[in-house]
Specification:
It contains 8 helices and 7 strands; from the N terminus they run βαβααβαβαβαβααβ. The chain has 262 residues and is of the alpha/beta class.
Length: 262
């Protein structure tokens, strides 16, 4: 019989990007890992948060206070991940304060509506800079610096773009969809370093963006009669970060509650 500690991530450090909203998946990931003993660094960027969600500026501070209640070390970092040098700067800052990151969760994302009539270079570049470039550069920076013999975890967030069309979201679909190919290839490259690399598609998750019109259209496609919650996503990500998932790598795990396409 295998016994599991109530705080299996004690002495591990998780870096979670895009944890800026109390309602968001990022905040739920941070709290779930912290409750299991992990020290937490999380990123936020107020200008982007306000543009996409009109997020109050004090929410990252509130997230940090909630995490500290789990008796772990917490380091919020405000950083613009769209900058080309963001990955090494962020890792340098974290290494200089809390130590070596052992769990990386690439959760930050940029998403605006476009479609073929509206798509232009600026829109595509803004999505690429955060959704793909920042994810890729943080992942390889993590892998280069990881010195453990096992237990390294990279978990990337995607949205099922390879499973069906996302009409009106060409830039988002293209850049997030590329994460699938990146995840599978990086997993093969870094396995010898004791690092697993996986992606999670959490499906339709109610983080405050679902309008009444969308709710009416999407809810009939949810067999359980509800949308996913941030905690649903966080539970899966915490498992992938655990020792129990040490044999799982190069996978894209779709956790959509049986969402019915078509």
């Amino acid at each position: 019989m295998v016994e599991h500690s109530a705080r299996p991530f004690t002495n591990r450090l998780a870096l979670v990007t895009g944890a800026s909203r109390l309602q968001g998946i990022g905040a739920a990931i941070c709290e779930t890992l912290a409750a299991r003993g992990a020290d937490i660094t999380f990123t936020h960027f107020n200008p982007a948060d306000r543009e996409l969600f009109d997020t109050p500026a004090n929410e990252p501070a509130q997230i940090a206070e909630r995490l500290k209640a789990h008796n772990v070390q917490v380091q919020p970092v405000e950083i613009d991940l769209s900058q080309p040098d963001a990955a090494p700067r962020l890792m340098d800052e974290v290494n200089g304060t809390l130590g070596t990151v052992t769990i990386l969760v690439n959760n930050a994302a940029w998403s605006t509506r476009d479609g073929y009539e509206a798509l232009d270079a600026e829109t595509l570049d803004r999505h690429y800079a955060v959704n793909l470039r920042a994810t890729a550069l943080l992942a390889v920076e993590f892998a280069r610096r990881f010195s453990g013999e096992s237990g390294g975890r990279i978990i990337n967030l995607t949205s099922g773009q390879e499973l069906g069309a996302m009409v009106g979201e060409l830039a988002y679909a293209a850049t997030k969809g590329a994460i699938v190919a990146f995840t599978r290839t990086l997993a093969a490259e870094v396995a010898a370093k004791g690092i697993t690399v996986n992606a999670v598609n959490p499906g339709v998750t109610d983080t405050g963006w679902i309008t009444p019109k969308l709710r009416e259209a999407l809810l009939p496609k949810m067999p359980f009669g509800r949308f996913g919650t941030p905690q649903d996503a966080a539970n899966l990500i915490a498992w992938l970060a655990s020792d129990d998932a040490g044999w799982i790598t190069g996978q894209v795990i779709t956790s959509e509650g049986g969402y019915l396409r078509g």
